[in-house]
Amino acid sequence: MTRPPLRILVAALGGEGGGTLLDWIVRCAELSGLPVQATSVPGVAQRTGATSYYAELLRDPLPAGSPDPVFALTPVPSMVDVLVASELLEAARMIERGFVDAGTTLIASTHRVYTTIEKMHGTDGRADADRVQSAAAQLAGRSILVDMESLAQRHGTVVSAVMFGALAGAGVLPWPRERCEEVIRLGGRGAQASLAGFAAGFAAASEGAPATAATATRDDVAAVLADAPLRAEDRAALMQRCSALPGQVGVLAAHGALRCLDYQDFAYATTYLDRLEPLVQAAPASAVLEEAARQLALWMCFEDIVRVADLKTRRERFERIRAEARAAAGEVVRITEHFKPGVHEVCDLLPRAAGLRLLRTAHLRGWLGESAHAGMHIRSTSIWGYLLLRTLAKLRPLRRKSLRFHQEDEALQAWLQALAQALRQAPDVAAPLARLPQVLKGYGETQRRGREHYASLWREHVVPALQERGTRDAAAFNQALQAALAQPESARSAVAPAAQPVFWAAPASKR
């Protein structure tokens, strides 16, 4: 009796080589004498477009004289033998549509390509990767989850080659590994890189023995630091310190240290790791540490005019804008930057004493407010505009003496001390406290509104919770924090609703 066909569904984003992977599968089947049929259905994934590739093939050659098989053109829920997803959310989409069940082998990459909705979120709007992986493990008969994107980058190839290797390594294809490698070699250009990626994917799927947590963290940290502009001794120092941190905290710390290096200098990156250590000592196995490591790096790299000027004049930004505008070689692209500086921005940039003196004068003379801002349009693609912005960016060595730096540093130190205390004494309060710096973002009016939110939340929730006999209402703290993040335009949203007395008085008598 003829066995049912092998049904393979591939979910991939545009540019990831999903079509090439399908071609390899078809070519291998043809060389093995197996009838095969392949189709593709384009779709939209809010990123680079998504396409579902579907192949059905017989597991054994047809006996002589047998009629040609009839294959389905599209996949049917609960009737897919192998699902290969190039990205974690694509795997989630296929799970949601019912293509994964107890009879399915799920092979998916754990890396993420974020959707527009995730990027638009006011805070961390990323889909829960742990939830997707848990669903995959529960619903699929067998799940193979590997970070194929990192393997592809490591070997200088595209993710489709790693996907093909994982497909072969899973042992679900009715032909040997050598047939796959033979077909890849037929591609000619780029075949060696594809073979290296194929071998990495094959090993990851066939060995199936995950690395220990310490090894995985060290490898991940090494991958983060690999291309960073660091001296050998500095890279070794960061590698040693980040790898010693527990679990994923080490990887986040590596990213944070590099962000601080790009923002200021290597000493600033070292300061970041120094500040993280007391939190690790307070709760070495706490999940709050990951959020704290992330928020600490973001806060230390607050956006002042020096940072904004630096980012707006980087070569990669100009190249990205040209690519987005689809400008051809030789075409002129003019970029106009919009600024609205006020007295606060000038004071923030000055040395601490001078900035405070000017700020007091501005208060006395009424120079603050919406009317005290000057709208400026600077063309960063012009010589004058570019030099002006680069001059501001070159003020980075003086940042540590500025008023804004001292203000941010004082508030940050208080947050770190409070968080270390909460991790030891009030873990339920530590979770929203670790996320509290999310309200501090941007510069100018946006940054000032964030400070108002922060001050309200600190006064109403943090201080009472950390007092010796204070009340600890973590739920109310979290609710107020979510309200502040959801309505950033209003400072009042940061304060939880409370009862207010109403006074009634008789109207004045008419005379």
Gist?
With 511 residues, the protein is α/β, with parallel strands linked by helices. It has helices spanning 18-31, 88-96, 116-120, 129-139, 148-154, 159-169, 177-185, 191-207, 213-225, 232-243, 248-263, 266-282, 288-300, 305-312, 315-324, 343-349, 352-365, 383-393, 403-425, 427-435, 445-466, 474-486, and strands spanning 6-13, 36-43, 50-57, 82-85, 105-109, 142-146, 336-339, 376-379. Helix 2 packs across helix 4 (129-139), helix 11 packs antiparallel against helix 12 and helix 12 (266-282) packs antiparallel against helix 13 (288-300).
Key terms:
511 residues, Pyruvate-ferredoxin Oxidoreductase, domain 3, 4 domains, two-stranded antiparallel sheet
Secondary structural class: alpha/beta
Can you tell me the CATH topology of the largest domain?
A: Pyruvate-ferredoxin Oxidoreductase, domain 3
Give the mean pLDDT: 86
Number of domains: 4
Radius of gyration over C-alpha positions, nearest whole angstrom: 29 Å
The arrangement of helices and strands along the chain is EHEEEHEHHEHHHHHHHHHHHEHHEHHHHH
Poorly predicted spans: 209-213, 490-496
For the biggest sheet, the summary is: 6 strands, mixed
**Any idea of the CATH class of the largest domain?**
Alpha Beta
Q: What is the 3D shape?
A: elongated
* Helix proportion: 40-55%
Number of E strands: 8
Please name the CATH architecture of the largest domain: 3-Layer(aba) Sandwich
Strand order of the largest sheet: 2-3-1-4-5-6
SS summary, helix count:
22
Q: In percent, how much strand structure appears in the residues?
A: 5-15%
The CATH superfamily of the largest domain is identified as Pyruvate-ferredoxin oxidoreductase, PFOR, domain III
Distance between the termini: 108 Å
